[in-house]
Amino acid sequence: MATPRPTAAGLSYVPNNPNSPWQMYLQQVDRVAPYLGHLARWVETLKHCKRVLAVDIPINRDDGTVAHFEGFRAQHNLSRGPGKGGVRYHPDVTIDEVMALSAWMTVKNAAVNLPYGGAKGGIRVDPKTLTRPELERLTRRYTSEIGLIIGPDKDIPAPDVNTDAQIMAWMMDTYSMNVGATATGVVTGKPIALGGSLGRREATGRGVYITARETAHGMKMPIEGARVVVQGFGNVGGVAAQLFHEAGAKVVGVQDVSGSAMNEAGIDVNAARDYVAKGGSLIEFKGVTAISESDFWALKSDIFVPAALENQLTAERARHLSTRLVVEGANGPTTPAADDVLHDRGILVVPDVIANAGGVTVSYFEWVQDFSSFFWTEAEINSRLERIMVDALKAVVHTAEEHKVSLRTAAFIIACSRVLAAREQRGLYP
Ligand code: GLU
User: Where does the chain hold its CATH 3.40.50.720 domain(s)?
Assistant: First the structure.
């Protein structure tokens, strides 16, 4: 990602950089516009965020000094319901990135037909440089600052890159203390004891696996014995890799922040995840050989899962990628130029807005369970998740065939039509 330039206000913003996530998103919208029929008249709606809040987050460091961090919450569109989307803690977070991620949430939530708009938040911080008490203070102050615009019926945050159930517990507690009532429905991805949902932690990775399995089936490619390469070994990539492994696929390559690793015979994913969970470094795990970044992108596979950050699968990498199917676990991993290269090379891409929608789908289940204070079994959750993902993917494949467009454009056609129909029916105020 390009180095963000501070604006006059001192905020990190990437204006008009063609590779910025927001510019990538705008190009995706341009591709869908010709297919929107009479709703095309509203397409500009999609090119603007309804509301973006930038906040200063001062915290006391353990050493007695005060540090300031930049935080954001963007609400891209609320036509179909309250805002919904995660919060990420990462040193590369910018307004531009958060805006794009909030827009992808609008599309994702509409693509799987959840009654939500799209939102996203982030703090520009490397959480590894903070102690646990500092991380708690950062989270609580951020939650208090964005408390103006979040709430169980306004905008519901959730985990994303480098945030987890503990951070959601602190967010829920801070919001609840400020409003004077326990509000479990203000965030999802909480610990089970605080109104969290069974299956939520694994849901994004499970959704990636389900969409990969269904698409592979349509391509007559058996999952058993398929060679799988996964970029990212966290909550999304790690869980997806495990499910592929359990289904008899061979996970031959994995990459995380420590580097890239391979095993021609297939990585023992469960053992590798245990090793990493105990603090080990993936590339030092006994069952793998460390390889270079360029060798990783050239690994031969049947299914490639980018499950790290945006902008990873560039046109250059797409020209060398040796795979049949790309299933996007991350948000925005493939640039529009890379989409074109993959299309020309006959490599099918299942886009993020469908492939990784499992997380927000189970977030929706969690929110519904919190409102009714009636909790479902893990089997019920997984079977409802399965049905929603399979049906949403089927509709996307059908639309792609009908209009002869990519699965990404098809998902955008379905989602943007739903968002803009709601926009039109509600009308403009005043
Ligand atoms: N951060 C996840 C995503 O990008 C989940 C969002 C949510 O559950 O609200 O889809």
Answer: 202-355
The pTM of this model reads 0.96
Catalytic annotation present for 120: yes
Helices (H) then strands (E): counts for the chain: 14, 15
- pLDDT of 17 reads 76
Structure confidence by residue, pLDDT tens digits, 349-396: 999 999 999 999 999 999 999 999 999 999 999 999 999 999 999 999
Please name the residues in contact with 7: beta carbons below 8 A apart, sequence gap of 6 or more: 13, 15
What is the 8-class DSSP label of residue 42? Answer: G
pLDDT exceeds cutoff 50 at 162: yes
CATH homologous superfamily of 49-183: Leucine Dehydrogenase, chain A, domain 1 (3.40.50.10860)
pLDDT band at 5 (very low <50, low <70, confident <90, very high): low
Distance 284 CA to ligand 1 centre (A): 31
Whether the ω angle into residue 115 lies within 30 degrees of 0, i.e. cis, is no
309 lines ligand 1 (CB under 6 A): no
Above 80 in pLDDT, residue 423?
yes
C-alpha distances in Å from residue 130, one per residue of 56, 93, 167, 171, 212: 17, 16, 13, 17, 37
CA 429 to chain centre: 31
Q: Is the CB of 157 under 6 A from ligand 1?
A: no
Pocket test for ligand 1, best of 109, 172, 204 (most atoms within 8 A of CB): 204
Identify the CATH homologous superfamily for domain 202-355: NAD(P)-binding Rossmann-like Domain (3.40.50.720)
Task: Calculate mean pLDDT across residues 274-299.
Answer: 96
In angstroms, rounded to a whole number, what is the distance separating the alpha carbons of residues 157 and 163? 11
| Ligand 1 atom at minimum distance from 362 CA | 8
Q: How far is the centre of ligand 1, averaged over its atoms, from the C-alpha of 158 (Å)?
A: 6
Domain with CATH 3.40.50.10860 in the chain: 49-183
Evaluate: CB of 103 within 6 angstroms of ligand 1. Answer: no
